[in-house]
Amino acid sequence: MHHGLLLKVETYFSAGEVDPARVVGATAVVIDVIRATSTIIEALAAGAQAVYPRLSSDEAIELANSLGREDTLLCGERRGLRIEGFDLGNSPLEFERERVAGKRLVMSTTNGTRAFLAAEDAERVLAASLMNLSAVRDEVVGHEHLVFVCAGKEDRFSLDDALCAGLIIQKLMGTMGRGSVELDLDDASRSAVALAKVYEPNANLLRQTAAGAALVEVGLAADLQLCADIDRYRLVPEMQERMIRLPDEE
Amino acid sequence: MHHGLLLKVETYFSAGEVDPARVVGATAVVIDVIRATSTIIEALAAGAQAVYPRLSSDEAIELANSLGREDTLLCGERRGLRIEGFDLGNSPLEFERERVAGKRLVMSTTNGTRAFLAAEDAERVLAASLMNLSAVRDEVVGHEHLVFVCAGKEDRFSLDDALCAGLIIQKLMGTMGRGSVELDLDDASRSAVALAKVYEPNANLLRQTAAGAALVEVGLAADLQLCADIDRYRLVPEMQERMIRLPDEE
Questions:
Q1: Average pLDDT, chain B
Q2: Is B38 on the interface with A (CB under 8 A)?
């Protein structure tokens, strides 16, 4: 019998489920398809310097002031819409190069921000969405302990985030087949893979999720098209000391 | 276009997720495949009078004393094993007719008990496991708002419980196709259905779940065979005032 590397994979379906002690030493992959991680990927791809996730709008404002307001933008949403007085909301479509290139973005969102902070004790904290599935797979393929932290929606399961985790795990399983690496999946990870077998990730599916339907309701359906743009980028943002950046573009 | 009855279906993947206010007016279906609801079904089928779920072992002991110890049994587990000083653990195999017929069972388990109490504000609270899938489907088919409360495992997702919910929803969808009833599934319910499409409910699958593997580890693998006995009974236990009984066998 051949014993190769055992890769342990765990999935949390909402930020509220995460026990911070259990991510220590692991590589955490934070997922908020609709929309925080999609927006972060889009913003960094458009040349933003860094994204600073903060829980409350007060903390966000305070940090923006201390960073200096001239090259800092305040971004975030409550109930899907831009926080009053903030520069930008949480719509990836807003984060165009001419607005965000070279800027620091302080960001406060309902679920995504919490997911990043719940994961911050991990050895590495990466950001994933449908927009960078393959790049994330390539980045984590050698890691021995992976924890997917789905943002979820108000402490509950989100189909979009769980499906995204399942698609990455499925890609890892494809890679594994060729090597001597075995995957040890927990209940939630196995269920995420089942979702990847059953559901096609596209804008139509996103519209049917709780998070997607809520966006449609506030007139932001166009965001879903971008959030569903599979492998739009080959970038993996990484958080270090509460600052999310592209590691290769210092 | 034909508009029939819309049946709203929600699923909570762990007891900790439940917002008690959101189950008010609904029919709650509590699921703890490994093992509380399987054990409760087995116990009531074996002639037990009623099961009284209680959170702590102290509460359980106090209630057993006030009910009168001669026809009351104390049942429950911590880490899978019988609570010290209790009459029975939480293994369905222990609940044989000669031990439990006519008895009141006061029960304290790690996850299942919490799920029942999280659901207690619902209009009706039913108990489901793989052992009574079809009976539960028949019982809830006309109800307008169903909430599946999966016990989960220490506030996390359990594959066995989610799969059980998915199997019941799938059976409902089969029924629906012939009538004028439409199902409105939330993200978690749709994901549960995906599980039902991908996974076969059997003892082998149960052994691979976190809850099942923990049982195997403490020498209780035999329980899983019984927990996986699909439609073993046509009974639906129901909780009223923190007392779970078979409504038709007063």
A1: 93
A2: no
